[in-house]
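#struct-help
A.M.: can someone run this one for me? Single chain, 92 residues.
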Amino acid sequence: MQENNIKQNQNLILENRKNLTISGITDVDSFDEKTICLYTQLGELTIQGRELHIDTMSVETGNMTITGDIWAVVYGDKERKSPLTVLGRLFK
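D.P.: on it. Structure tokens below:
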């Protein structure tokens, strides 16, 4: 996605703690059945739970659908909108 000065909207829709729809995804850092770490237009985002599955993800639109038993949705560093490079990880 191209960066520009216009902020785009980001939406999180959580239904019955089982279905989570997210827009504004820029990258996925890591995922397993308990934790999904991703980057959004508003910074880092971590989803925690049990039996988490990424059902759909569109690179073009930045939309993602996650199912499972969702326990927490936590925003992290607002300034980090993409993964650190190898050098960035060394000096962090």
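A.M.: thanks! The radius of gyration is 13 Å.
D.P.: also worth noting: The CA atoms of residues 56 and 76 lie 23 Å apart.
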